[in-house]
Every structure is written in structure tokens, then in C-alpha cells.
Design goal:
Blueprint lengths: L4 E10 L3 E4 H5 L6 H8 L3 E4 L7 H16 L8 E5 L10 H9 L5 E5 L5 H14 L6 E8 L9 H4 L4 E11 L4 E9 L7 E3 L10 H5 L5 E3 L1 H22 L9 E4 L4 H11 L10 H4 L6 H9 L8 E8 L3 E8 L3
Helix pairs in contact: 3-4, 8-9
The structure holds oxa(dethia)-CoA.
């Protein structure tokens, strides 16, 4: 019997309407359009506006679009893995909230927190449920409302992040397409360089934590950059070597969109030309868990059955990893 792989059979995405341009940021913090573009590659990012709207509200758009495309109902979904660093609330899980909002009455679900690597951790985890035969329809959602934890007085972080969400459906495939391999890594020692200090059990919210601005993203950019540029490139090269893939055989590199310079270094390490790299950082910035599914969504019409994709990410934690998958449709 041929091995069952977990194939992506549908993808969809959603970004909010509001466009926060570099020009507008120039009026908020001491920065310039030229600096932001040259250091990050970002020109604009989307921001979710509206009282009471959270990450799950973007996911509703992404998932409803996906279900329509695939021609299935929400009731057919068996499992929802919601990869996010900005859940609607600490509990219950955004997966539960999403299931309720879309009417996925037969699904169970949970949130997965691995910062910017969350989507590939979720994809790899979701694939196990398909490969084992436990489930036939698994939704992996990746999205963040980063604007909810960004300090718009801090020029080193507010220029990078944006809001957005993407989702994929995983189903069994016996033609050899789907998730073939993954390498996932964590190093908790890196938490000092990128974290949100307060709001968890170690430092619950208080007047003091709010006054100290401890509910915002704290990032030591240069330190994170050094780890990201090395580890993301290394892990992408490692998965190619492990699967005896040459750069010619790679159809697409789908990188986490944190900084154009990190993406370029990864592509160069893999020996993959710019024409094979999905990049939309200039329009969306870093949407954390949203970057990779949003790329897949935007490039969907160019993807062909059997295409070889290498997904790679690096994020807070530290977390990093890569996934090798063959496109199924
Ligand atoms: O996705 C999760 C993982 N995150 C990442 O991968 C992000 C990794 N880090 C980065 O992408 C980059 O480190 C940043 C984009 C955050 C910063 O770029 P950088 O080239 O590393 O800048 P830097 O922190 O070394 O700062 C260089 C200079 C500093 O000024 P001085 O000390 O040389 O006078 C900063 O104060 O640039 C200054 N600066 C800015 N200038 C204008 C920092 N932010 C800005 C800004 N506009 N927005």
C-alpha cells in the first residue's frame, strides 16, 4: 500500500483593508521610508481596525474562503490547529472561537504557539493526524493581529509587523504529494531577545506592567537577526541535503517574511534564484504566523501539481524549522 501523505488541498488568506504605509509611520516615529525599505524591504502593512475584533475574525474570512473553494462545509472539518501568538484571549483557544464562528460543530481544536515558526510547526503537527489515519480533514490556520501587541512609539518594532491570516486544508494523498519531511527546532535560551514580558502567569497584568509597557513585543533586533539569518538558512539547506534535493529541483522557497535580507540569505544558501522565492513582505510586513500561508494563497495560481516547495521560518522562542512538501493540485 502506498504511503499516505498529508496534502494541502486548499488555501486561502485574508488581510485587513487598512494600509499602514511607511509614509504614515514617518509621522508617528522618527523613521524614514528609505530606512525601512533598505533595512527590511517593507513598504506597507495591513492593520485590523474595529472595536472587539481579534485574530479569529481574520481567520473567519480566510477559512470561509477556503471552504468555498474546496466545496465543503465547516461541519466536515475534524480538527483545527490555530497557530497564533495573538489569540483573541488567553483562554479559551482561538481554535474554539473560530470553530464556533464558522460552524465547525464536529471539530476539536487547539492553539499552537511557536511565534513566527508557528505555521510550519502546525503544518507538521497537522500532517501527523492525516498520516496516522486519525483524521481526513485538518485545518491549519496561521494568523496574527500583531498590532495588538506593538508599541507604536517604538520605531524598532512598529515598522516591521502587520496583521493578516491564512489557512490551509490538509487531506490524505496517496500519489506521493503532500508534506514529505520537516525539521523543527527550539532554543528557549533565545527568549531574552524576543518576547512579550507580561500578561502570562509569571508576570500577570497589573497597573505596573501596563505603566512599564511590558505588554508589547520586546525585540533586540540585531541579536535576533544574527540567529535568524544563520538558522533559517541552515535548516533550509539541511532539509534539502537530507532529501537529496538540488537547487534545480526546488520549485519554490516559501520563507517566513521577517526581513528581506534574511530571505535573500536563505535563498542564496539554498542556491535558489530570486524568481523562485515567494516574497510579499513589501505589502504585508511580518504577520508572524500569517506570512507563509499568505504567500501560498497569493502564489496558488502559479503552483502546479508535483511542485517541490521548501518552507522555512525563524521566530521568537527561539523557534525555527523547515518543511519539504510536494504540491498536490
Ligand atoms: O520574525 C521574527 C524574528 N524577527 C526577525 O527576524 C527580525 C530580525 N531583525 C531585524 O530584522 C533587524 O534587526 C531590524 C529591522 C529590527 C533592525 O535593523 P538593523 O539593521 O539590525 O538595525 P539596528 O538595530 O542595528 O539599528 C541601526 C540603527 C540604530 O541607530 P544607531 O544606533 O546606529 O544610531 C537604530 O537606532 O538604526 C536605528 N534605527 C532606525 N532608524 C530609522 C532602528 N530602527 C529605526 C527606524 N528608522 N525604524
Amino acid at each position: 500500500m502506498s504511503k499516505i501523505h498529508a496534502a494541502i488541498t486548499a488555501v486561502h488568506g485574508y488581510v485587513p483593508d487598512y494600509v499602514l504605509t511607511n509614509k504614515e509611520l514617518e509621522s508617528i516615529v522618527d523613521t524614514t521610508d528609505e530606512w525601512i525599505i533598505s533595512r527590511t524591504g517593507i513598504k506597507e502593512r495591513r492593520i485590523l481596525k474595529g472595536e472587539g475584533l481579534g485574530t479569529s475574525d481574520m481567520a473567519v474570512h480566510a477559512v470561509n474562503g477556503l471552504l468555498k473553494k474546496r466545496g465543503i462545509t465547516a461541519e466536515e472539518i475534524e480538527l483545527i490547529i490555530f497557530c497564533t501568538t495573538t489569540p483573541d484571549m488567553p483562554f479559551p483557544a482561538s481554535a474554539n472561537i473560530l470553530a464556533d464562528k464558522i460552524g465547525a460543530k464536529n471539530a476539536w481544536g487547539y492553539d499552537l504557539q511557536a511565534a513566527c515558526s508557528g505555521f510550519i510547526f502546525g503544518l507538521s503537527t497537522g500532517a501527523q493526524f492525516i498520516e496516522s489515519g486519525k483524521h481526513k480533514k485538518v485545518l491549519v490556520v496561521g494568523g496574527d493581529k500583531m498590532s495588538s501587541i506593538i508599541n507604536y512609539q517604538d520605531r524598532t518594532t512598529c515598522i516591521i509587523f502587520g496583521d493578516g491570516c491564512g489557512a490551509v486544508l490538509l487531506e490524505p494523498n496517496s500519489e506521493g504529494n503532500g508534506v514529505i519531511d520537516s525539521i523543527l527546532r527550539t532554543d528557549g535560551a533565545g527568549r531574552q531577545y524576543l518576547h512579550q514580558k507580561a500578561g502570562g502567569s509569571a508576570r500577570p497584568a497589573s497597573h505596573q506592567t501596563v505603566d512599564n509597557q511590558e505588554h508589547f513585543v520586546h525585540q533586540e533586533g540585531q541579536a535576533v537577526f544574527k540567529f535568524a539569518v544563520t538558522n533559517m538558512a541552515d535548516v533550509a539547506a539541511e532539509i534539502m541535503e537530507r532529501n537529496q534535493l538540488t537547487s534545480e529541483e526546488v520549485t519554490w522557497l516559501v520563507p517566513h517574511q521577517a526581513n528581506k535580507r534574511i530571505i535573500d540569505a536563505t535563498a542564496s544558501r539554498m542556491g535558489v534564484g530570486a524568481e523562485k522565492v515567494m516574497i510579499n513582505i513589501e505589502r504585508y510586513g511580518n504577520t508572524t504566523n500569517g506570512t507563509i500561508p499568505l504567500c501560498l494563497w497569493e502564489w496558488e495560481s502559479q503552483l502546479k501539481k508535483g511542485d517541490t516547495l521548501i518552507l522555512a521560518a525563524f521566530g521568537g522562542g527561539f523557534t525555527w524549522g523547515s518543511v519539504y512538501l510536494k504540491w498536490a493540485y
